[in-house]
Specification:
Elements lengths: L6 H21 L11 E3 L10 H14 L9 H8 L20 H20 L7 E3 L2
Helix pairs in contact: 2-4
């Protein structure tokens, strides 16, 4: 992973990611985290198709799929953030980081926002893929 990234590409990617973070944050208000509101992902390997976590995730994906492509919470928009050949490019689309030192941090941020969107879109007390820590 020693591929070089130039300064222009770095600032374009981080600027797009920051813009999306601000946009999503205004659309999905979240209370400040406390120890009682932390979530830990459950191991999906031990779940069956009717587990409440899988059911909630299925509901979230269905709700995301019903949103217009231009909505940052939509399934299509979220997929296009990672990679797309669709034009015209929207804010934050195709900003993934592969083959460089930003790979882990970029993907961690991507999953963080995706999981927040899923929690809101499932409209359940049980958040998809997570268990509340108390």
């Amino acid at each position: 992973m020693t591929a070089r990234i130039n300064r222009r590409r770095f600032f374009a990617s981080t600027g797009a990611a920051a813009s999306l973070a601000l946009l999503v944050d205004t659309m999905i208000p979240v209370k400040p985290a406390s120890a009682a509101s932390l979530f830990v992902r459950r191991n999906v390997g031990g779940m069956n198709a009717y587990d409440p976590v899988i059911t909630s995730y299925r509901k979230a994906i269905k709700a995301m799929g019903e949103l217009p492509t231009s909505d940052p919470r939509s399934w299509t928009y979220q997929a296009a953030i990672h990679a797309t050949f669709t034009t015209p490019i929207q804010t934050a689309w195709d900003t993934r980081q592969h083959g460089n030192y930003f790979f882990w941090s970029w993907h961690r941020m991507y999953l963080y926002w995706f999981e927040r969107i899923c929690r809101r879109m499932c409209c359940d007390d049980c958040s998809p893929g997570t268990a509340q820590v108390s």
